[in-house]
């Protein structure tokens, strides 16, 4: 390969799924004043990556074509912009690339130092690459309901749905670390795994109990972290305690309407929509938990860069257990 070019996976238009991803050779980007150039070791795919390809935020995202998707990467800094002070060449890092620029399915990416945190040697590139979108969403959902991770918080009765997914698998572990009583839903094949992550009770979502979200004690939930579009407000609401709140990371239409309804009424039971924000401190906190062995990235599968299309299809299928990783 020419020293100034790199391999990247791109798509040129909306739609087309994995089949429209093309393996191309493009210029290695040059870091601007506050950016670093990262040689990517691992990237992780999130549902938002293929939802953007489908045109979920058309015409705003992707902003222009051809587009190199994926935002979550881990790797090594190989060049720094003239005003970068927090990083130097050789630093191991994890980054959440900007949604507008993408760039994570490539051998190199430029990224703002604001979107980059240091990664200690004990945290592998694949474990780190799983963290940005999924880990931050789980952490921010739990922080927004007042969860503390230093033992000073108030324990609550919590339900995490789709606990076997990328977000859910982090959410269960963080809820347990926060001292909450955790009920979780997942498919039968993942019950033992989800229990091992710290859930006190696990419901198979294909059973009547799992469908109704009812735990064995019959106690209603103070909070529900809803990580699937498959559960609607009509099922969530009866399971909430008097002032219970749903933090919905994947609202379907009925849940969006419930959110709007909640704004205009005095209903005590509420549904709030979670929108991820970068939070560099939050990402550093997650990396620290992984280093201390308090948080694990559950890895569904690892694919070589040559098989990035297969990784993409796996995410589109919606049945990953944890994170889908691509190794460069
Ligand atoms: N608001 C935000 O900022 C934000 C951030 C991140 C993600 N999201 C959204 O949140 C959703 C989850 O993301 P993710 O990365 O966790 O997805 P994911 O890893 O693809 O989730 C897949 C997992 O969900 C399980 N699942 C699917 N339907 C279920 C149901 N009805 N009940 C229980 N488990 C179910 C699947 O289990 P089986 O294989 O057994 O079916 C699978 O293990 C996606 O829609 C994503 O776009 C939103």
TrEMBL record:
Residues 16-326 form the Enoyl reductase (ER) domain. One of its GO terms (molecular function) is oxidoreductase activity. This is Enoyl reductase (ER) domain-containing protein. InterPro entries: ADH-like_N, Chloroplast_QOR, ER, GroES-like_sf, NAD(P)-bd_dom_sf. It holds the Pfam family ADH_zinc_N_2.
């Amino acid at each position: 390969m020419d020293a100034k070019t790199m391999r990247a996976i791109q798509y040129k238009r909306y739609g087309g799924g994995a089949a429209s991803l093309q393996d191309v050779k493009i210029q290695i980007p040059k870091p601007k004043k506050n950016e670093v150039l990262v040689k990517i070791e691992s990237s992780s795919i999130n549902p938002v990556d293929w939802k953007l390809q489908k045109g979920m935020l058309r015409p705003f995202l992707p902003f222009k074509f051809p587009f190199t998707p994926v935002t979550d990467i881990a790797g090594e800094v190989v060049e720094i912009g003239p005003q970068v002070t927090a990083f130097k060449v050789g630093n191991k890092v994890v980054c959440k690339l900007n949604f507008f620029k993408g760039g994570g399915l490539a051998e190199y990416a430029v990224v703002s130092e604001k979107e980059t945190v240091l990664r200690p040697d004990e945290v592998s590139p694949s474990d780190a690459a799983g963290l940005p979108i999924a880990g931050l969403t789980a952490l921010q959902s739990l922080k927004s309901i007042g969860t503390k991770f230093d033992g000073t918080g108030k324990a609550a009765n919590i339900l995490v749905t789709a606990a076997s997914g990328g977000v859910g698998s982090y959410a269960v572990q963080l809820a347990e670390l926060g001292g909450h009583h955790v009920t979780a839903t997942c498919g039968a094949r993942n019950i033992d795994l989800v229990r091992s992550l710290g859930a006190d009770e696990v419901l198979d979502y294909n059973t009547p109990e799992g469908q109704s979200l009812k735990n064995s004690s019959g106690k209603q939930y103070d909070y529900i972290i809803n990580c699937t579009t498959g559960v609607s407000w009509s099922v969530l609401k009866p399971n909430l305690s008097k002032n219970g709140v749903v933090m919905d990371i994947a609202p379907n239409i009925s849940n969006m309407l419930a959110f709007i309804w909640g704004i205009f009424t005095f209903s005590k039971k509420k549904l709030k929509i979670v929108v991820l924000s970068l939070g560099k401190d939050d990402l550093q906190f997650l990396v620290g938990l992984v280093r201390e062995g308090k948080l694990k990235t559950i890895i569904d599968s690892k694919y070589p860069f040559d098989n990035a299309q297969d990784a993409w299809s796996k995410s589109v299928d919606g049945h990953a257990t944890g994170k889908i990783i691509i190794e460069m």
